[in-house]
Amino acid sequence: MENAFQKVAAYQYSSEAIVIKGRLEAEGIEVFMADNYTIDVDPLVSNAIGGVKLFVRTENVEKAKEILSEISRYAPY
């Protein structure tokens, strides 16, 4: 399954996910977001459905995780 996607991250709000999505796409990684519209309509369900999920192609998972770990070093939380 060369076109399979794998979840690499989840965020409580779509605004967080969009920033990370942009960073991954800037590195040439194709990103698919799930549940962002649901959470935009009703943010209170975010925890119940597991937040906004970011998926990347299976062959890009390691590169995406490296980028995410690099970003998390500078996160304010």
TrEMBL record:
InterPro entries associated with the record: DUF2007, N-reg_PII-like_a/b
Gene3D superfamilies: UreE, C-terminal domain
Alphabetized SUPFAM superfamilies for the sequence: GlnB-like
Any Pfam family the entry gives: DUF2007
Domain DUF2007: 8-71
Taxonomy, superkingdom: Bacteria
Protein name, as recorded: DUF2007 domain-containing protein
